[in-house]
Amino acid sequence: MTKVELFEKTRLDKVLSLKIEDLGISPKVEETLRVNDITNIEELCFNRKTEVLSLVNIGEHAITELVQVLADLGLTFMSKSSRK
């Protein structure tokens, strides 16, 4: 593994381990994620957008907020083809 690859892996590991409460999202969205056992970025982005949208109290506004947070971190929700 090159130094660049190691740096990227380390950066990604740090980003994925970020806690939901450290993201600055609205309290209602934060609480909804926590109640559904989504406590960090890894757990959030390893869900499909439609799965998160199906959670109680998560609507289009919340999804837009979460998509933006993930985008700011260089991440997205899992795509349909990524998980079988």
Order of helices and strands: HHHHH
Largest sheet: none
Question: Unreliable stretches, pLDDT < 50, 5 or more residues?
Answer: none
CATH superfamily descriptor: 5' to 3' exonuclease, C-terminal subdomain
Number-wise, the strands total 0
Give the count of helical stretches. Answer: 5
What is the percentage of strand-forming residues?
under 5%
Structural class: mainly alpha
The first-level CATH class is given as: Mainly Alpha
Whole-number count of domains: 1
Q: Report the radius of gyration as a whole number of Å.
A: 13 Å
Share of residues in helices: 40-55%
Shape: globular
What is the residue-mean pLDDT, rounded to a whole number?
92
CATH architecture assignment name:
Orthogonal Bundle
* Amino- and carboxy-terminal Cα gap: 28 Å
CATH topology: DNA polymerase, domain 1
Describe this structure in words.
The structure is a single chain. The chain is 55% helix and 0% strand. It is built from five helices and no strands. It has 84 residues and is an all-alpha fold. The model has no long low-confidence stretch (mean pLDDT 92). The radius of gyration is 13 Å and the shape is globular. The chain has one domain: 5' to 3' exonuclease, C-terminal subdomain (DNA polymerase, domain 1), CATH 1.10.150. The protein has helices at residues 3-16, 27-35, 41-45, 49-53, 60-72.
